Amino acid sequence: THAFVSIGWLGLIGTYSGINEHGLIVAACSVPGQKPVQGRTPNQLLIRQILEEASNLQEATDLIKKTTPSSPMNLIIATSSSIIRVELAR
Predict the structure, then answer these.
(1) Contacts for 29-32: CB closer than 8 Å, 24+ residues apart
(2) 19 with 4: CB under 8 angstroms?
(3) DSSP type of residue 35
(4) Residue 38: is it exposed, middle or buried by C-beta count within 10 angstroms (0-12/13-18/19+)?
(5) Tens-place pLDDT, residues 30-66
(6) What is the β-pairing status of strands 17-20 and 83-88?
(7) Cβ neighbours, 10 Å, residue 62
């Protein structure tokens, strides 16, 4: 996996934002009032997976397309030269 730093707190397995060794940045904004659905990928773990495995925007979006998120969320994914906004929906 790629080295990364992230923002989190004690007990959080995943993360809500971070940057990896390739300069890929992921930041998230939850959609309030939505309860997570059991049996789907927790959004915090998806963000961590992106930081660990993706080195560019294409690899990040490929990982997202393979995932069924547990709750709606907006992601900003950026590199030094590009930025995208991704809306996760159930």
Answers:
(1) 29/73, 29/74, 29/75, 29/76, 30/71, 30/72, 30/73, 31/71, 31/72, 31/73, 31/74
(2) yes
(3) P
(4) exposed
(5) 777 777 788 888 989 999 999 999 999 999 999 999 9
(6) unpaired
(7) 13
**DSSP designation for 34:** -
Evaluated on CA atoms 15, 19, 20, 24, the torsion sign reads positive
Quote the Cα angle for 18-43-49, to 5°: 55
| Rounded distance between C-alpha atoms, residue 79 and residue 54, angstroms | 11
The pTM is what?
Answer: 0.89
